[in-house]
What we know:
The complex is a heterodimer of chains A (294) and B (306). With 294 residues, chain A is an all-alpha fold. Chain A has 12 helices and no strands. In chain A, helix 3 packs parallel to helix 6 (156-166) and helix 3 packs parallel to helix 12 (262-289). The longest helix of chain A is centred in the middle third of the chain and has 37 residues, at 85-121. In chain A, 44% of the residues are buried. The model of chain A has no long low-confidence stretch (mean pLDDT 80).
Amino acid sequence: xxxxxxxxxxxxxxxxxxxxxxxxxxxxxxxxxxxxxxxxxxxxxxxxxxxxxxxxxxxxxxxxxxxxxxxxxxxxxxxxxxxxxxxxxxxxxxxxxxxxxxxxxxxxxxxxxxxxxxxxxxxxxxxxxxxxxxxxxxxxxxxxxxxxxxxxxxxxxxxxxxxxxxxxxxxxxxxxxxxxxxxxxxxxxxxxxxxxxxxxxxxxxxxxxxxxxxxxxxxxxxxxxxxxxxxxxxxxxxxxxxxxxxxxxxxxxxxxxxxxxxxxxxxxxxxxxxxxxxxxxxxxxxxxxxxxxx
Amino acid sequence: xxxxxxxxxxxxxxxxxxxxxxxxxxxxxxxxxxxxxxxxxxxxxxxxxxxxxxxxxxxxxxxxxxxxxxxxxxxxxxxxxxxxxxxxxxxxxxxxxxxxxxxxxxxxxxxxxxxxxxxxxxxxxxxxxxxxxxxxxxxxxxxxxxxxxxxxxxxxxxxxxxxxxxxxxxxxxxxxxxxxxxxxxxxxxxxxxxxxxxxxxxxxxxxxxxxxxxxxxxxxxxxxxxxxxxxxxxxxxxxxxxxxxxxxxxxxxxxxxxxxxxxxxxxxxxxxxxxxxxxxxxxxxxxxxxxxxxxxxxxxxxxxxx
Lengths: 294, 306
């Protein structure tokens, strides 16, 4: 038994779990490619309308329902009012992505707080809170969203609120489950032993340890809320003319797709590519962060 | 078992009540009333109308009136469609929605299970890859993109079917909407079926069944199928609820006079009772469907006994 004792200072450098996750994510090629594509789309939506010569609501009287052409920078063609479709698609993307981000932010916040509090409190508080989640699950959220939008008018922030109000349920459930298992760990016990107040245990010790599942489920929420906004817009209950979003453009394009197919092609492609990328990124994140795969 | 059914029904009641209350409050936060029309009616007529619909009472009394009628199965009168009660409108629209949505759900479940089994038994074959590819496209292309695509292909490029409309349950008008709703769900079901069957096939009792010399067909049909169906059954309820969204899109895209079209019209007409009635009705249907699915689950899974 002549064990060689390794000197302590020769120990390998520690790796944080987040770095591990990043390495695993980078190995997922489709996910990395999706990040690049999505970033390009977002960049185009933000910068495009500023540098392109056409405004989203200006009319080109000479080119109505024109197919894609380089003349006048109408690379995606124009609609039946002679408005440039490239800029409208980008502006619509701004709305769709912005609604997606805002609604996700709201719904993730509600979901994490709700789930963590329910899971940590346990007992009657937990069962009441989760019963509310069960009840909300049974409600077809689009009906409520339709209701809210018609009651209060077509305000984009209300659309966000209505979508967010019903997309936090999965998050709350998952977070609660994870909280239950974290609650009985030693470090929570230790924090309790030295008298840390409950709310600080929840938000400083439990929530940071939930981030893995939160990131995974956020990646599922994002495409969902973008889709919800598009559905509302498609039904004519989202943003109002001349402002536009991908759902509105697809709806308008669909009505005339026999004659001017580019009017539906480009917005539909933009939306589908975005959703596809979001799903791939979700897959990558799941592979990178799922604790079961370690 | 019966105790479980009763308990589940008791949970249903508060859910429905909460939804009714929420919608009621939302609708009464709106400025303006249902009789603020362009054409002014005389004050006497207005007063009579308001008295008829209890609009002259304080909100909480209106609410109680509404609950009472609801308990009698009366969804009230439509504010916008004169001479129609909400019950009449629903009675005309519900069969249409059920015919489209129900057929699509049955087809999607059957087809999804069949495709999932095929894909699981021939992993990485052309069928498997094809199914997974379609599954990916189907779960990413939203209904309002897929709908126009279907119309473009089967109504405009190939003039086989009408691009929309409705003619008293004539099959010609039902094919495309049903196809659309089926496509939305078949992918999900197929993917779940494939995954769960692959998992079941690798378990010990399947190895035993094969070891005693049963042909693969019998192993799958008699031993593997039942446990593999469980995840599919458990997803049908949530899937049906999420399909309500695509059903609304489908009905409004194909101009089908079902519940979805009714609610979108009702919403833009500000038809209080109509929208309220529809939300209540759909919620009750959704909750009941969930209950049925849970019972089917209990019946299929020998590990669960209530």
